[in-house]
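Protocol step 4 of 6: structure prediction from sequence.
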Amino acid sequence: MKTSSELSGPAFDLKGFFNERHALIDGALDRLLPGESVDPVSVHTAIRWSVFAGGKRFRPILLLTTGEAFGAHPEKLLATACALEMIHTYSLIHDDLPSMDDDELRRGRPTCHIRFNEATAILAGDALQTLAFQTIAEESSLSTEKRVLLVSELCRAAGTPLGMVAGQAHDLEAESRAVTTGELEQIHRLKTAALIIAAARCGAIIAGATDPELEAVSRYAAQLGLLFQITDDLLDITATVEALGKTPGKDARAQKATYPSLYGIEAAHQRADLVHQEACAVLEQIDTPTERLRAIADYILKRDA
């Protein structure tokens, strides 16, 4: 348990930290991804169009931040952080398809299937998913045991029955029908929070965190993932297309289950505040520097895009 003196101190420059880690991740992604001149050119061009479309790199930055909090060097964390971003980008490519969310704008520019075509977008997503697991499997700086653990974590978080694919399925099934508050939270704990939990857990695993530390990190990240989705739902109503980088108001038009539609805007803000407090309360129980993880929770609560 931290003392009050450990919880105080100068303000952390989160923006500078994010920019530094963003550049580090982008450099590693550039090295790991096939170049646009490599066959099949169409797929690799589509991959790079989507990966380097200006994302915030929130999930890989969370992985780096968690791993560093437990003493890991960034170089040991970087490959897995990139693998996580590959999985996230593949999910966005497929989410935007006409058979899913049918969106034409992502991160301020045409979605992959609009810029290229639907078949190329599907293949780009498929390739990113497989490359993610290849990246972890071939990371020689990590032991074989840790690589197996990391692949297992990512598989559970990205698939079914308790991961991102399951969440997307439940989300689609919930369109145009009433859902309970419990159903809504379950959808978003799977669709959004699962990969965010995996990011934090993978960083902690690489750093050699103990089982109690890993459990605490998981609880923090679960609340962080829920907070991310609540604020995302609110931004879909309140943000402009320029700020959001994608088409706002689509959730309402698709009659999706969201926190504002179920709770109302004011109550959704209150729910976000509570979830933020719960995430930060978990950090106080971890006996390692967590200022940066607290700053990330603050950022998610207050984000405007």
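Step 5 (inspection) to follow. The chain has one domain: 12-302.
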